[in-house]
Sequence to fold (287 residues):
Amino acid sequence: MNKVSLVMATLGRVREIEVFLQSLAAQSYQAYELIIVDQNPDNRLIPVIRLAEELEIPLIHLRQEQPNLCMARNTGLNQAQGEIVAFPDDDCWYETDVLEKVLVRFNAPDAPEGIIIRWIEPDPNPCAPRILTNKLWRRFQEVQASSISLFFNRQLLIEMQGFDANFGLHSWYGAGEETDLMFRIMSKGSRIAYLPSAIVHHPTPKMVKLPFDKSYTQTRNRSRGTGALYAKHGLSIWVIIRGLFSPWFHGLLNMFNPTVAGAELGKAIGRLQGYCRWLIQKNILKS
Fold:
């Protein structure tokens, strides 16, 4: 029987994790372990640990002092015992048959090395199940692959050395860690399947009116990761031009909406910053 290791990095949340635990307890497939990498400076997860005991959920509780999403996930990966590893966020939850459907697909005759399930809130009308292509992935034209939707063979993740800690929350390149991992996996020719019948839930960000400067700063910090991906993975000049210049166009169309205009400018500047900084760092390391 295949075992699934679920690695959850967390900071600041309690109630949301309890919702996830309830969804685990209700799974039709029960051969799993939950590894929580606790980045909190306090003991707020004590109620979570107690609830896991009550629900008889196998839980490994690890601590990490320095908040860094990718480092935390890699810490959990190094402790994982399951043949399959996933990375649920601390505010998502699974439908009751997710693990069962994932394991059935992994054990099919045409078994993939990884599976992307469906994050239903932004993807209510999915395309058909299929194998992903590297060509479309390098154009950002494949299915959405948020970290909450990824399941991989553990040996593949070990071969990839997990997540690149340069990317993601609490790093200068403030996002893009799962996309970077997928780039590396797809470039080696791994078979990754899209399985839309397995569904994960996660609240989508609500559109909140922000002043121009705050909208700009938040989006810029995350967009640096996208720019770094352009440079790290040597994407085509057309993909880079589209990514760097399309936000200017959308920003002009929304120039009288401070929230949208700030976000679009943040995308443009952040992507350019990430692209240039990655190239500069790469050349410095070469010299």
Summary: The two ends are 50 Å apart (CA to CA). The chain has a mean pLDDT of 95. Residues 258-286 form the longest helix (29 residues). The CA atoms of residues 18 and 136 lie 37 Å apart.
